[in-house]
């Protein structure tokens, strides 16, 4: 019998929903590159329901228990007294979502001798010390593509929200005002602006595609160049380094994974390369940016705005400066966990679990680490090493 530990975010403060705003989800057959959506043998949940919080259990309990395994679901993940710590010693599978990450540091992996699979219900496995997973032969897998389009939609929303000054204008209306001048003194059109993405993977390329109809000039930098046909179709300008791209952009959006090569790539020095008044959108990972350098750039006006949904650590301590810095459009980490996305990644998590328990290969596109090395999509997009340093700070968060 195996123990499967599933770390999920808390239920809504007013309880697990009994009704929903909508009755169905649109049907999506496949992703644009032809990759199929998750293909588990079955699912035991209603698509469109809240699966990512504790009571939703990613719809997995019936399946896991039907195999005779123990299934533990908890939101308690940080600090020495957390549930996660208690179950480390005999967990074979640890499932976690990036929105509420179960940080699997080298120390924790060392104290989890039976751990075989660290499964990310979502995309981005930087909450796992990949080097330690490599060293201890732990497989790391994620549900590639499951929420890439969800995030891209969020990026577009945030670009428009910041540039057009949406949130402060909404606040004026909600508070009974009609202060048009206050609203528009920081409001611009995106038309004609230059927008650049660091990484043109599944999310980055989708962002470029979605922004093209706004008649923005589109730029990107990536370790691998896109096919010429795509560059032509979208009239893209490729930059060999991100540093060369920053200075020409009015809007920069970060869409690369967090790994040692990208950690703190936005810092005081690189921010000097940005145009004064640029907007920075980061829905990739908080630690791509030096926390205090972002605050300074907003205070001096180097950046006109910063928006995103990713922080470090998560949950962000209650006094994290990004909660209150000027001209920010931050939300908690939500872009990849819409109800639509949850349906896809819950199914993908089930598919990976089925492979694990039946001894079938996990799809290459889901693999980050396997057999003591980076594998699959991980070998393409990540570098070896660890980006979990400082994650113990997540323990400081207190429910507001
Ligand atoms: P993909 O794997 O499709 O794309 C990642 C891209 O990043 C690849 O094109 C890769 O390049 C590129 N890349 C890696 N390192 C560098 C680097 N040093 N410089 C420039 N480009 C680099 O993943 P997705 O687009 O689906 O997701 C990207 C990231 O977004 C995830 O890793 C995750 O951190 C974050 N994310 C956030 C979510 C949220 O809810 N906020 C949800 C989903 C993802 P190449 O492969 O060419 O080497």
Description of the structure:
The chain is 28% helix and 15% strand. The chain contains 14 helices and 14 strands. Helix 5 (148-163) crosses helix 8. The radius of gyration is 21 Å and the shape is globular. The protein starts with a strand and ends in a 19-residue tail after the last helix. The protein is α/β, with parallel strands linked by helices and 400 residues long. A seven-stranded mixed β-sheet has the order 2-1-3-4-5-13-14. Strands 8-7-6-9-10-11-12 form a seven-stranded parallel β-sheet. The chain folds into two domains: 3-145 and 337-375 and 384-396, 3-Layer(aba) Sandwich (Rossmann fold), CATH 3.40.50; 148-323, NAD(P)-binding Rossmann-like Domain (Rossmann fold, 3-Layer(aba) Sandwich), CATH 3.40.50.720. The site of NADPH dihydro-nicotinamide-adenine-dinucleotide phosphate (NDP) has 34 residues, from helix 5, helix 8 and helix 14. Homodimer. It comes from Paracoccus sulfuroxidans. Belongs to the D-isomer specific 2-hydroxyacid dehydrogenase family. FDH subfamily.
What does the largest sheet look like? 7 strands, mixed
Task: Return the domain count.
Answer: 2
Low-confidence blocks of residues: none
Mean pLDDT: 97
Spell out the helices and strands N to C. Answer: EHEHEHEHEHHHEHEHEHEHEHEEHEEH
Shape: globular
- Order of neighbouring strands in the sheet with most strands: 2-1-3-4-5-13-14
Percent range of helical residues: 25-40%
Indicate the proportion of strand residues: 5-15%
Classified by CATH, the class of the largest domain is Alpha Beta
Oligomeric state of the chains present here: single chain
Instruction: Supply the helix-strand structural class.
Output: alpha/beta
Give the radius of gyration.
21 Å
Distance between the termini: 38 Å
Superfamily (CATH H level) name of the largest domain: NAD(P)-binding Rossmann-like Domain
